[in-house]
Amino acid sequence: MVGISRHHFMQIRGKEDAVQQASRKADRKKKFAKQLKEAIGLRKVIEMITRSHKTIVGHNLLIDLIYIWSQLIAKLPSKLELFRAMVGEKFDRYTLIMAVLILEGL
Q: How far apart are CA 89 and CA 15, in angstroms?
């Protein structure tokens, strides 16, 4: 019996032979390599954006920044003030604009 873990369930299959195990392991390695390559590509895009010094306008930009920061840049600090300082070092001070703030001004 072999248990295969999925996101929302676990599938129980009959006993696998060595060839099936090797094939499943190779498939997992390929999937991981693809995900890693995609993450590195996104990381390069983020680096290009930070180096461009262009204005970034986004809706719920803070939430997006928190997610991107935690997944691609560094571990999130325990306090918001520290996060703001870290983001300020990475991006120019006035390059991040939240669309919600623009709409409130109208």
A: 54
